[in-house]
Amino acid sequence: MMAATKRAAFGVTAAALTLTALAGCSGQEAPEREGAHGAKKAPAAAPKSPVRLIGDGSTAYTGAQPLQPVPKKLAPGEKPPQFVVFSWDGAGEDSQRLFSHFRKVGQQYNATMTYFLSGVYLLPEDKKDLYTAPRHSSGRSDIGFNDVKGIKDTVEQIRGAWFEGNEIGTHFNGHFCGNDGGVGTWSKEEWKSEIAQAKSFVKNWKSNAALKNLKPLPFDYEKELIGARTPCLEGRKNFMRAASEMGFRYDTSGVNDQIWPEKQGKLWDLSMQLVPVPGRAFQTLSMDYNFYMNQSGATRGDEDKHEYWGNQMRDGLVQAFERSYQGNRAPLIIGNHFESWNGGTYMRAIEDTIKTVCTQKDVKCVSFRQLADWLDAQDPQVLAKLRTLKVGQAPKTDWATFLNPAAPAQPAAAHAPGTTPAERH
């Protein structure tokens, strides 16, 4: 648990998904690794000029982020790579040490990820009144705040993760869900306030936590922050309106099938996805919380079932991977929390999934930023053609023919047999 706080982070709040309803939801540079896509890019050289501190020195401009792949446009007829995005809601380092653990896993298996930081994890309890959530009194947060040790530990992990090529997004602040002032009730302007406060806590953690002698975070957060996932996947419509005006490039708060993404206005829609639940007659959201809810309903279930439940989640994610990898090659989007629900079984499932999928040929385990960069580099007509493929559907011809500009389009995408369109949250 986050020291001196209540820590809980959730996916979507409904309990189950059936055929007609959806379950809610180091400071050191890393060694050179193969790029996630495109040409290999070596770590950035030491800056020729001094680090440029920003504000109170909580953040700093240190040059271009190292270990970023160069996105390349697909050649005519070229088969697309299989992208997989592993992401973490409310990323912070606590006594479980899951942030630091999964950084090591990512390095071992050549996977960069997206860490959605909750701003209040950089705000100490004694400064909680600096946060005023829309429709709530000052100092309120449904996930509490942090203490100085927790802030130091989290900053260390964020710094190291960024140098290793990972992305730092936002999960906003107080994680309010539901109808009583939850994020789903917020206006565009209220979302802008929440986003501005989330940025402020990152840009002023040194002053707020009296940690002036620590190293800064090595990025300008105004430029680093380009995407988010909303709490409980609620409030997406007005969040996207606000985000579009504040320079964001993607959102991952929706629910979709495993099909190729498209833009909604200015933002890439990189929604969560429906994936199989092995042995069950329905699909659920590609998130640890949703498997947890379907298996034991937010309680610590029978310990004798923990191994089975972890295997069920792992196998469901691998099945989802295989139907994209062997089918339409749509990016697979997976969301997680640094939590030990049911004895940590879902953390084991995610680690097993990373080991299984990120080591395969033509697979690129990337951050949302890197996926958005690749999508931006593609010919829009090629992406439109990829979107005509159904869930798990490979081209009727070979890829070279299908993505040849002269090849006719296939029928419009439909839902896979046995599923219905997802409810939107």
From TrEMBL:
What's one GO BP annotation on this UniProt entry?
carbohydrate metabolic process
Q: List the keywords (alphabetical).
A: Signal
Extract the ranges annotated as region (Disordered).
29-49
Asked if the keyword Signal belongs to this entry, the reply reads: yes
Report the leader peptide range. Answer: 1-23
In terms of superkingdom, the source organism counts as Bacteria
Q: What is this protein called?
A: Lipoprotein
* Species assigned in the record: Streptomyces finlayi
Starting at the broadest rank, the lineage of the source organism is: Bacteria, Bacillati, Actinomycetota, Actinomycetes, Kitasatosporales
